[in-house]
Amino acid sequence: MKLCVAQIRSIKGDILQNSNTHKRLIEQAIHNGADLIVFPELSLTGYEPELANELATTPDDRRFDDFQAISDANQITICVGMPTTSDSGIRISMLIFQPHQPRQTYSKQYIHPDEEPYFSTGQGQVFLTGNATKIALAICYELSVPEHAENAAKHGAEIYIASVAKSADGVEKASKRLAEIASTYSMTVLMANNIGYCDNFEGAGKSSVWTNKGALVGQLNGTDEGILLFDTVTQELVSQENLIT
To answer: Which residues form the CN hydrolase domain (predicted)?
Structure first.
């Protein structure tokens, strides 16, 4: 199975322009044979908590139908970040488009204290299955919560993919933790981070992949948009590319 994480510089609150950038990165991933691509936290709006209430929508928003069409036509699973509405408040969510399947949503179950004024917690873990392999999804702060990775391992996950929005200091801490998750639970681990200014910090990129032994085998830089592709069968990096414009 070929897994891909995308590194993107989201334009603050511009869902249309960000969607177009997503599509260009997805096209590159498809060209390289990716089975799944995951974008950073709140990638369609940028990580902007103060705008979340204004920008939040429902998971079935027709503006995202193009992602389903691309998924169907190319047999690729696409995971994008978007604030969504719920009865309990606004959630930090990942919209999941799978070939010829109903749209799924995974909402962040553990939120950082700084996010509590803007967001409510999601309920329940979502697992994806590809080639008989179980994939656990995580959103940013969740990777720092031991119970999250433990639960993924208990449910038989072999792959752990974190969609994040982190500064340079945050990336350094997350990288150590994700390498630890990989080696402790024998899971292949990937991280998709943003670049560019958002909220009150600069996204530091360095989207990465670790083998199920905890070895770092691929990492993007901290300044450019691009994709990182990993083959779970060979446990080798397939492609590392900057965005073609």
So the answer is: 1-235
The helix/strand count (H/E) of the chain reads as 5, 15
Distance between CA 230 and CA 237 in Å, rounded? 5
Angle between helix axes 146-154 and 168-185 (nearest 10 degrees) is: 30
Residue 244 has a pLDDT of 67
> Is the per-residue pLDDT at 130 higher than 80?
no
Q: CB atoms < 10 A from the CB of 138, how many? A: 28
Q: What is the dihedral of CA 140, 208, 3, 15, to 10 degrees?
A: 50
Mean pLDDT computed over 220-240: 92
Please calculate the CA angle 43-48-194 and round it to the nearest 5 degrees: 40
pTM of model > 0.90: yes
Q: Looking at the domain that runs over 2-242, which CATH code has it been given? A: 3.60.110.10
Give the CA diameter of the chain.
44
CB atoms under 10 Å from CB of 25, counted, come to 23
**Which residue ranges make up each domain of the chain?**
2-242
Alpha-carbon gap, residue 131 to 218, rounded angstroms: 23
